[in-house]
Amino acid sequence: MPVEVALSPEVRGPLTVYPVEWARAFGVDAFVTDRFHGASDGPYESLNLGDHVGDNLEHVRENRRLVACAIGAERLVIVRQVHGARVLNVRDATPESEADALLNAGSDLALAILVADCVPILLVESTSSRFCLVHAGWRGLHAGIIAKALEHFHAPDVHAFLGPSISSAQYQVGPEVAIHFTGVANALALDEADRSRLDLRLVAASQLEAAGVEDERISIAAQVTDGGDTYFSDRAHRPCGRFGLVAKRVS
Length: 251
Fold this sequence. Notes:
Elements (H helix, E strand, L loop, with lengths): L2 E3 L4 E3 L2 E5 L8 E6 L23 H14 L5 E2 L9 E3 L11 E4 L5 E6 L3 E7 L5 E6 L1 H6 L1 H6 L7 E5 L9 E2 L1 H4 L9 E3 L5 E3 L1 H11 L7 E4 L21 E7 L2
Parallel strand pairs: 1-15, 5-8, 6-7, 11-15
Antiparallel strand pairs: 2-3, 3-4, 4-16, 7-10, 8-16, 9-10, 9-11, 12-14, 13-14
């Protein structure tokens, strides 16, 4: 069974971040941000990293600068996420690039993927310098983003982390979504009328295992985005900001 881990806060400058502790053993500094101690206000209060949600772009730039400093980088590599299955090498990425997974094969660049209920995933290969960040909502999971990302790895050597996302208790979907996941055991629970509750992280973990990642090498954050109090949640508040899963290779 995948291991549930409670993320512990760590102060870096003015920010509180939530490190993925096991990744340090493989030379990767990775953490999840929360929604506090940034420059944004209103519904984006305050550490919003998304520049596509209606927030003041100067505030977003300052927030990204703060997070980059927290991981020891000049800037974050962030691309346009489109709920697809494209994997992009970070060296080829531009702010206009469209992808839902960023692959790092040894560079010292800092990567970030942004979420507000979708599943942020970190993949680290224990036998190489490769790691990858994945943005996995239901569309990306259906499109096969996890399998596409794992094509760049030897799956049995991969350790995976699934960050805070919406819980099944708060994620109601219609039959047009549920039909894509009926084959995943325990991923769906019947709700009122024709609605269901979907467990995104269970789907993601099942896809990782199906692709060859050993279940004991999969960790799942105990924290969820429900309510949008600590992490932004699109289901709880619209409009809202985006928090990030951030990673950088370190010596």
